Amino acid sequence: MLDIFDLIKNKYGDTYRLRSPLTKDEYNQAKKWLPKELLDILKISNGIDEIMMINGKAEAIWFIIDPLSQIIDQTKFYHNEYGNDGIVFAGNGAGGFYVLKDDGKIYLFEYYDIGEEFYAESLADYFSNATSNN
User: What pTM did the predictor assign?
Assistant: First the structure.
């Protein structure tokens, strides 16, 4: 089975960039509440950027996976504003959130209809099937 980073490489080719891993303090904070699959990604790369070449330089244009600080902020907002459970780990570019639920399934929460729609069985399925525009 391919790991998540292989799936991301297959999906995004050369248009992604890893970031620095979580610090020890961030990792200790995150391991208390993040699911293992997401934590395993962040301990290698604290967020993953989608990049585009602009004037010959690779520029981050979007997060494929949000950094921990943004996961915390977006998840708090999601819980407080909408009262739903789950971990917000990425946006869809149109104001919606991709949410990882306790059972490992991914849902897309759309703010305009304040509803969740099933999206993928797992993070691996999410990266196998999602479009590069998340």
Answer: 0.87
